[in-house]
Design goal:
10 helices; 0% strand; 67% helix; single chain; mainly alpha
Length: 179
Amino acid sequence: MKTLEDLRQTISRFVDGRCKRMQLRRELDQLAAMGSLDAVLADAGLVRSQIEPLIAGGGGSRELLDQMLARVGVDAAQLPAESMRDMTWTCTTCPDKRQCREWLSGTEETGFRTFCPNAEQIDYALAAATPAEWRHRALRETGAANEGAYRPTADELRRMSAEASRRETRALLDRAHVF
């Protein structure tokens, strides 16, 4: 059962999100009126078809992502800007923000993997944040066959390549401050 404070927070989030969406819509309309919209979108690595998903899901997405990263122990400031852009866009277009907020308000530590479209990237960031010597020690202690040396699988190499490609295509988003 929701308390009065929960209801107030929900209403506040709704109103704030609506205000942000309206402000973004006005700014995009102004750019379109000036004939600059396509150029700005191109600079940001976006196309017109991405405007509606951006407006629909943009409110509070970055805040949710920051909370998610903090909760699982990833320092967002240490992540590459490209990764943050990709994860922010994924969060922006995520249809399950309610479940995310519920998970963030709970105590379960690993359940985000069942619903979060950024789970794989978060796990990758967690693995990268763990000092290599700890990973090697953990592998040795479990009797891993590779004696602690990390060797990515073919699937991991394909995933890393795809992530690099996404980072390249979204490299301009950071300068555009779309989110």
